TrEMBL record:
Keywords: Membrane, Transmembrane, Transmembrane helix. Residues 128-212 form the FecR protein domain. It holds the Pfam family FecR. This is FecR family protein. It comes from Azospirillum brasilense. Coiled coil: none annotated.
Length: 331
């Protein structure tokens, strides 16, 4: 079943944002609530998108319909894709900010109730590592091609980083927890230093100082998150609700901040996602056989195109340009 058309997805997102705003108003009529419940029943995507928008704004779960929404019989169940599969979170943040800005008169009230952010900032990733300062006093090292959205509410601080890598030095504020949202996970802290790497639903969080908890967005109520201590790395595989914890050397993980990548005898399957942001043409593995080959060493990120070109001299592989990528195959 092909996915729904992007314009239809945009319509659902816009309608979800509109319902969030209408239902948080002081006067909500029974007719409005009934219309909202009908909207939720019309399409299984509606309630999923509403919940995603409500979570980003931190709105009360009480805004959900009182009657559980069910799919319309005529619509295929496959059309009900979760937000983490469709991953339009950047659009949700932008839409939330734009709609809130349009309600400038009510912004102070929304902020005082913790519904709307007082500050929304976007930090665009580029071809070089850069350091940015957040309004709360935190600093973030952005790796190449990493874009970060920041929203500061009265009682919390939220970051959206759907893809890429960043090192956070979070200013301590117990009254306003700091949460990093990726495509399918949440990292929560009050003040600490940690690295987040996100790639196509996969996640690695490395803790340098303090404490963090990491959980999947799809985690069931009451499910315990991963709790990391300094020197630990928590990893989540794609579409997994449960992660693993390993002891690592944070200095090696954070070597990208110094323009280096350190590979400590890792597989090519692990190395390729770390290499690709720096390459003029991304690598793709032909099969699991080549992905299982191992690589080690310390590499300058400015020289990685040359390193990749030399791989056939150090590993039994071939490289061929195909469809805009470099296909890495076993020899």
């Amino acid at each position: 079943m092909p996915p729904s058309h992007p314009s239809d997805d945009d319509r659902v997102t816009e309608e979800a944002a509109d319902w969030c705003l209408r239902l948080q108003a002081e006067q909500v009529s029974d007719a409005d609530r009934a219309a909202f419940e009908r909207w939720c029943r019309d399409d299984p995507r509606h309630l999923a998108e509403f919940d995603a928008m409500r979570e980003l704004w931190g709105l009360s779960a009480g805004l959900r319909p009182r009657v559980t929404a069910t799919p319309a019989p005529a619509r295929p169940v496959a059309a009900a894709r979760s937000p983490s599969v469709r991953a339009p979170k950047q659009r949700r943040w932008a839409l939330a900010a734009c709609v809130a800005a349009a309600l400038a008169v009510g912004w102070p009230v929304g902020w005082s109730f913790g519904v709307l952010p007082g500050t929304v900032d976007v930090f665009l990733g580029g071809d070089r590592h850069r350091v940015v300062g957040l309004p709360d006093g935190s600093t973030v090292d952005l790796n190449v091609r990493t874009t970060l959205f920041y929203a500061q509410f009265r009682d919390r601080r939220s970051v959206l980083m759907d893809h890429g890598e960043a090192y956070f030095a979070v200013a301590g504020d117990a009254a306003r927890p700091f949460t990093v949202f990726t495509a399918a996970h949440r990292v929560r802290v009050t003040g600490t230093r940690f690295n987040v790497w996100a790639n196509d639903g996969e996640l690695a969080v490395t803790l340098a100082e303090g404490a963090v908890t990491v959980s999947a967005a799809a985690a069931a109520a009451g499910e315990e998150p991963l709790r990391l201590t300094p020197g630990q790395q928590g990893r989540f595989a794609r579409d997994s609700r449960f992660g693993s914890v390993a002891r690592v050397d944070p200095a090696r993980v954070l070597s990208w901040r110094e323009g280096k990548l350190v590979f400590d005898d890792i597989t090519l399957a692990e190395a390729v996602p770390l290499l690709n942001p720096y390459l003029s043409q991304p690598l793709r593995l032909a099969d699991r056989r080549v992905g299982a080959m191992r690589i080690g060493g310390v590499y300058d990120v400015a020289d990685l195109d040359r390193v990749v070109a030399s791989l056939p001299r150090v590993l039994p592989v071939t490289i061929a340009a195909k469809d805009g990528v470099l296909l890495l195959s076993a020899r």
